[in-house]
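Sample A.
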Amino acid sequence: TESFQTWMRQFSAMQLSKREIKTLWNIFVKIDFDNSGSIGLAELLAHIDLDRTRFTEKIFSIFDEDKSGEVDFREFVLSLWYYCTLTKATLG
């Protein structure tokens, strides 16, 4: 689809390899228990074994860029990429 091709261009610009994207896709699918194509807060928390708190809700809302209540694959990849590229300097 057109949106998937757009996502792939973004992922490429982030210097993610096809192998890394495939690995992230496999993780995403594993978290998406209901196979809806997106991850809800309950699915994410069940996967990482955390309770629902104001903190976890806030973190999820940051991942949920379009505020749909769900995180699609693009939002998932971008959130992980942002987190993994943070440094002490960028935090502070």
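Sample B, a different protein:
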Amino acid sequence: RYYALKARWFGQASLAHWVNDALMAVFFFVVGLEIKREVIAGELSSPRKAAAPIAAAIGGMAAPALLYAAVNWGRASVNGWAIPAATDIAFALGVLALLGKRVPASLKVFLAALAIVDDIGAVLIIALFYSSDMSFVALGAAGGITLVLIVANLLHVRHPIVYAVLGVGLWLAFFNSGIHATIAGVVLALTIPARFRIDERQFAAVTRDALAAFERGSGDDSGTLADQQRAAAVQTIETACEHVQTPLLRLEHALHPWVSYLIMPVFALANAGVALSGDLSQAFREPVVIGIVLGLVIGKQLGVTTLAWVAIRGKLGQIPTGATWKQLYGAGWLAGIGFTMSLFIASLAFERQPEILEIAKLGILAGSLISGIGGFLIIRMAAAKAAAPEA
């Protein structure tokens, strides 16, 4: 039955299927690159830096899931318990960016790290709870391709084409394994090299020598192409620029605009539509909507703030530099903007229950909107209060 479904998928897949299984794999690939970068050299690179956002993310996933499960216990809709556990990093940071310089940069970093840990949790939830009908043959193929990717990394293979070809094979293997195909994006990202070919000192020395050679050129007004010495110097600088960047950073920077301005809007257009026919007030009384709204609006801010407080008061982590507890509380509200990630999990949870999926979307949109407005107002008021003595 599973393989018959897969065969029909390729022939009759809707736009939503292609977006959710294919384009979202690219989104999760970029998420994986961000995760790896943060673990290697970012806010998750040391226990002291990582403790507060990790604790906050755990609280921000557990509390909403428990609230939703409590409201929907014993119903078919309980399968959507992970919907309010997700955070849309792009929208959360976007709302925070509207406040500009009124909030410290450290609060943005804290929210980004929290959302990235939340993404790790979402990936694990999708792999463990929203996958079925496992094919161990396909899983074995995915494991073999992953091993080849790791070997390529260890052999310092840096050309993106190698990883792209193997990545397509990995996606196909996961697609046929029963584990959601988007997980392939994260696995592929974790194998992308994150090492420089030359360090900053070598880069500076090479470019200085190349610039000196460029200046010694003929100075012919016909252009550098007519002067082989200058052309060689330019080529040396271009190569040095490539070698001083890691493939991970190059790919992240190259793909981020495509994800932000194409994949996410297409995903939203394909999945966020809500049929508003019927009694809207009755829809808001449905347990699935109540559970999602309570999870995103109440569960997120309580879970984030409480466990962040425990980690910071317990001297395991530290409050973002220059931020107040009220601003941190507001960031907890912003973490309740589930939107794209919540919609994605809802599409997996209620794939065979479209009637529940429709009202779940209503809860996601309402909960995300309330959380975004609430977080914006709380942080804005906190920033105004902090600036008042200076007025």
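Observation for Sample B: Confidence is low (pLDDT under 50) at residues 1-5.
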